Amino acid sequence: MGVRVKVSRLQSYLFEQNWTPRDLANRMGVSYTTVYRVLSGKRRPGNDFIAKLLAATGKQFEEFFQSERGEASQGFDGCVSTRF
What we know:
Organism: Alicyclobacillus acidocaldarius subsp. acidocaldarius (strain ATCC 27009 / DSM 446 / BCRC 14685 / JCM 5260 / KCTC 1825 / NBRC 15652 / NCIMB 11725 / NRRL B-14509 / 104-IA) (Bacillus acidocaldarius)
Number of strands: 4
Radius of gyration: 12 Å
Distance between the termini: 6 Å
Largest sheet: 4 strands, antiparallel
Pfam family, one: HTH_3
GO molecular function: DNA binding
InterPro entries: Cro/C1-type_HTH, Lambda_DNA-bd_dom_sf
CATH topology: 434 Repressor (Amino-terminal Domain)
Domain HTH cro/C1-type: 16-64
Strand order of the largest sheet: 2-1-4-3
């Protein structure tokens, strides 16, 4: 099973909060590079990243992620799909 990052939704959330990806990284306690790589589809969002993102935002899993099956790909809906 993989996890699909709802990149467009996460970027909208950052805009709504007036946060940059660097602000998000600081709130999560991870490097900016980690956030950048996940948002660009160059890195899979592991369990630690997912937990820290949800803790930093106070949101539920479904807000920024979608479970699915399949190989890594980027869809037209702005989601990045990854497979664990």
